[in-house]
Amino acid sequence: MTTSVSFKWKYWILGLLFLGWSVGNMDRFAINYAVLGITEDMGLSASSTGIILSSFFAGYALMQIPGGYLADRFGYRRVIITSIVMWSLFTIATGLAWSLTSLILIRFLFGLSEGSFFPSASKAITGWFPTNERSRAMSIMLTSGSVMGVVTPIVTTQAMAANGWRPVFYWIGAIGLLFAVLFLFFLKEKEKADKKKPSETANLPAGTAQSAPLASVLKSPLVWKLFVGYFSIYVVSWGLNSWMPTYMRDVRGLDLASIGYLSAIPAFVGIFAMLISGVVLDKLPRGRDLQAAAGSAVVVAILLYLMQAAGSAAMFVGIQCLVMVFQSFVVILIASSALKHLPESNAASANGFINTGAQIAGFLAPTMIGFMIDASGGSYMSAFILMMVFACVSAASLLLISRRSKLGNFTMKEGILHE
């Protein structure tokens, strides 16, 4: 009976995490399209636009480790609900921004508010799902980003064309507050819904300690290599997400409505790529999954070169769809590795730290690309070269893990994870 209740609750919790991360992704993606109107209203340069797009990630990155610690210390339920309420309020505030400075500050605070959701959700997945199901569970939650990648450009570009960019943030913020109420009534902690049995820890790697301080986790070579890999692949991800709408307008000459529909196509492909990646990774032996992900990162670099050389907008979008497929494999591998190889008591802190790499990339990539575009007189070639280099760095970091781990055996000695 207890097993049946646990089975039902874990998918209910996963559904809530999916919905919560959906509205969070809509909040953060909307600025990539709103910035087209913001730059016109405020007369901003590419460099200033890049700073706006990056300001969210500065706050988001700073909150990853504290957010994970808070979830480990006080439970993920409180942290997630507080996060949704706060980010929804700052989403509404985005629509009230009156200057470049105010917009940068609001987006920074928005990122700070949203930063604790991912590590807290990671802890929820670790608590509710056994080791051999965590890649799939993580892929389902992260698929919300691809779903919102389809919905957000279509909905927001149409709404902005009809009403301007400000009202869109009021509406999205209100939806977030409604979701916070839903979470208040229905989100449960694992311990409260189903007492953990000693046997549930049997899937942890042999020799794994049940608790280790964050300082010890940060001494792990595995964690640092995952950090570098996640940072590097997200330079590609956030570079494309933040600048492709502007690129398609400036270089490909598309209007706002066309940009919205074309941007949705790679994201739609990404939905299936994320889900398939999770299933495949749970079936691959440890070590083989790292090699496959490293190879995928190299393919991403090659495809980025082909993207910038594409002769038409249709070919450009088609190649971007392939980038999404191979990029998804790398993202899911790294996002779920800590959940499989670290004890549950430290899962949120470890994944919060690893995810900090992705958010530092989100802070640096849009700003770097903006300055590079200005410095090159409006050319995007340097931006694609930057993303190609970091895709290769991600591949190298994963190959280093694969070579050291051989068959993928990881153990904890003296509280530090070793390969």
From TrEMBL:
The transmembrane residues are 12-31, 43-63, 75-98, 168-187, 222-240, 260-281, 290-307, 313-339, 351-373, 379-401
What PROSITE patterns does this protein map onto? MFS
* InterPro entries the record matches: MFS (IPR011701), MFS_dom (IPR020846), MFS_Na/Anion_cotransporter (IPR050382), MFS_trans_sf (IPR036259), Sugar_P_transporter (IPR000849)
Q: Where is the Major facilitator superfamily (MFS) profile domain?
A: 13-406
Q: Which UniProt keywords apply?
A: Cell membrane, Membrane, Transmembrane, Transmembrane helix, Transport
Tell me which CDD domains the record gives: MFS_ExuT_GudP_like (cd17319)
Transmembrane as a keyword of this entry, yes or no, is yes
Q: Does the keyword Transcription regulation apply?
A: no
Q: How does it sit in the membrane?
A: Multi-pass membrane protein
What taxonomic ancestry is recorded? Bacteria, Bacillati, Bacillota, Bacilli, Bacillales
Protein name, as recorded: MFS transporter
Primary location recorded for the protein, binned into one broad class: membrane
Report which superkingdom the organism of origin falls in: Bacteria
Cellular compartments annotated: Cell membrane
